[in-house]
Design a protein that fits this description.
This protein has nine helices and no strands. By secondary structure, it is mainly α.
């Protein structure tokens, strides 16, 4: 008799799907198909920014990397907000890990370090695995460590250009993070409004992505 390994895997994924995410927001998850409709819709800014990057970038490799990564963030973050499921929260963080490692490995190149791209994807997988095993705030800590690494490597890279856009991108990212904290802790909360802290987080994060894309594009053009 053959052992059916598919059923345990399906059951495991089903259990992860049925588990609630490790954080909640001002807009409570309701029992409909789309659990958080306002937060889900607010992700549209990532799609808009991703398309703009692709159009303005005129099919350049860097624009494709930023553009498609931003569109992926839109997709994964939308699914996470729509389901409020632990399984798709892992995917949401995976999208964030993919983006921040893109910045990190671009900085490695500028520093003259030849790091195989496979290591970038191993870092992404590691981040997802840490979240899966430890849960809680573990992915936030891991993501914070990656952001810190991006900041350090930015200043270790050779300075031949203005960092004005980089500073603006960092400030926009920090602003989005503040709105995320406000919404997660329900410090300012009206679940009937689409302009929530969660959606302001999406807005400022997407602005940060665009500014950073332009920053790296200018570096490559020099």
């Amino acid at each position: 008799m053959l052992i059916n390994i598919e059923e345990p895997i399906i059951n495991y994924l089903s259990n992860l799907y049925n588990l609630p995410g490790t954080v909640s927001y001002c807009e409570q998850a309701i029992g409909h198909i789309i659990k958080r409709p306002f937060d889900t819709g607010g992700n549209i800014v990532f799609l808009i920014v991703g398309i703009i990057i692709l159009l303005v970038g005129r099919n350049k490799a860097l624009a494709r990397a930023f553009g498609w990564t931003t569109i992926l963030i839109w997709l994964l973050s939308s699914i996470w907000d729509a389901t409020a499921s632990f399984l798709f929260q892992i995917f949401d963080f995976t999208g964030m890990f993919i983006f921040v490692t893109l910045l990190l490995f671009l900085n490695f190149e500028r520093m003259g370090l030849k790091v195989a791209k496979i290591y970038r994807w191993l870092v992404v997988i590691l981040g997802a695995a840490i979240f899966l095993v430890f849960g809680g705030l573990s992915p936030h800590v891991f993501f914070g460590a990656l952001v810190f690494a991006v900041i350090i490597t930015e200043f270790l890279a050779r300075q031949k250009y203005s960092r004005k856009l980089w500073y603006l991108g960092l400030a926009s990212f920090a602003t989005g993070f503040i709105f995320w904290i406000i919404d997660m802790n329900k410090l300012i909360c009206d679940p009937t409004k689409i302009f929530s802290g969660r959606n302001l987080e999406h807005l400022f994060f997407s602005i940060a992505i665009y500014l950073l894309c332009v920053h790296y594009s200018k570096i490559q053009e020099e």
